[in-house]
Design a protein that fits this description.
Shape: globular
Strand order of the largest sheet: 1-2-3
Helix content: 55-70%
Oligomer: single chain
Number of strands: 3
Radius of gyration: 31 Å
Strand content: under 5%
Structural class: mainly alpha
Order of helices and strands: EHHEEHHHHHHHHHHHHHHHHHHHHHH
Number of helices: 24
Largest sheet: 3 strands, mixed
Amino acid sequence: MTGSLAGALAPPATAISTLPAVGVQHVAWLLLAFPAAGAVILLLGGKRTNSWGHLLGVAMSLAAFGYGVAAFVAMLGYPAAERSRELQVYTWVPEIGRFSVNIGMRLDPLSICFVLLITGVGSLIHIYAVGYMAHDPERRRFFGYLNLFIAAMLLLVLADNYVALYAGWEGVGLASYLLIGFWQYKPTAAAAAKKAFIANRVGDAGLSLAIMLMFATFGSVSFSGVFGEVGTAKHGVVTALGLLLLLGACGKSAQLPLQSWLLDAMEGPTPVSALIHAATMVTAGVYLIVRSSPIFDLSANARLAVTIVGAATLLFGAIIGCAKDDIKKALAGSTMSQIGYMMLAAGLGPVGYALAIAHLLAHGFFKAGLFLGAGAVKHGMNDEVDMRRFGGLATVMKITFVTFTFGYLAIIGVPPFSGFFTKDPIIEAAYAKGGTSGALLGTAALLGAFITAFYMTRVMLMTFGGKRRWEPENHPHEAPAVMTSPMIILAIGSLCAGGFLMLSNRLIGFLAPIVGTPPLARGFLTPLSIITLAGVLVSAGGAWAIYGRREVPVTAPRGSLLTVAARKDLYGDAINESVLMRPGQWLTRLSVYFDNRGVDGLVNTVAATMGGTSGRMRKVETGFVRSYALSMFVGAVLLVGALLLVRL
């Protein structure tokens, strides 16, 4: 690295005052209205919309994208310091004591980047899904769920306060649950949807507690209110806020220790995997960290926790990807790993925020393209996903092979593809942190790049190279044009997006007023990037030596202990079961026992005592006058005796 990156940990830019929305931005609520209207019509219209529902779903997503482009162009017409605009829509919660929530939209360089990603890539995936879901009788409902997701995700990134953000946060969680379990007749899909929903509830608890702490401390949940007062809070409160926000981010972005749901989520249709679990929803955690940068800037401990989670997850996901034979699960492990890079960058502070967003945007292109390519392979292979039963597909699925290759070269970071321009700066920034932590974080990121090259080369060779290993009843064929066209566009993005974003500091300059990232003085090829590229080529060569020169067995060998562990997701489910589920079951059983024998036992004992006493007292009430007279006489004698004893 050259220039000032090593000393780029400069103070963040001062918060800029937001201005009222004007022009096309004045009705920016249409961004949400288009997909929300599509979801309402498709989900409430019933079977009457079956014949044209998919077309409406695509149209609503494209309309949102068109409006997003218009808002972006309008934003470029203002000076950098005046590009943050606010639009107040309505009062959601009227003033109750000190608490009130206005639904407003914050249009600034950070949110508009996500708007373009969500609606642009989302529209391509909608178009792809027209062909992929062509024979599904519930295609209309599927597109309704997709539109619901787009609307919720836009609310999440456009909200101007944490409560509205949380509403969008829960909305995308609901849409994810519905889409993962779309084929609910499959027990595995239903179980995966429930697992994702429950795992995300753990992270959501962290975000909700953070919002409560914000209101208790600052008396506000708006971004401007919280960020304006966070400097006055105690250090412990700021650190607690950062850690709680990180917990929320770990849930949505499938980071350790809440990562296990993402691999099972591949049970959903492939367009869902591309849209939600590769390009958009799983990046929501990164957005939350970067949006909350004024909080993290004031807590070195919270930033350190973010970097540790990111570094650990990028290695965790990469190792898992090396052992998966299911093509979608191998890519899911890759998603965990790449988001780990984004989290690592975000934890580096001002120098890393824009780097995280740059890799996020480039990742949206190449990872969505890879997943759509995997879906095309599955479509052409009669729903087969086991790579050991592929082989030789490059000759029969040429468009898919070429587009998938573009995504492969982008993710492993070969110039001039996107990953080279966005991932390598993160590795350099990690080393530039300095000290032991910088060395460890940089080495983890560098090792992750080498492992990525190995498992992605493995995916390429097992799927498209070698001999044909598919079953005789399978007749692989190229996907229709409605599916390959989005794949071609995403492949072009895989080639061009990284260089466009990073060369001349375009994205860094655009985001600087929001996150304060200083410009990077970085050449095209630095010593570290050359080392990284050399290691990537060596790793790819190692994968070729194992999977390219040798015949791939149809049945996977047992493998080493590490391979067995990676196939079992490095025992992530077993750990969660031991740490969370089993203690919860024991606590539940103990609570039930205490309730039955303790609470109910005490109540039942009191009731039995009173019942037994009343039963015995009832025998005294005989109804005979002589018995009552005798009782009165005995009582009088006892009373007189007691008085005489007192006088003596």
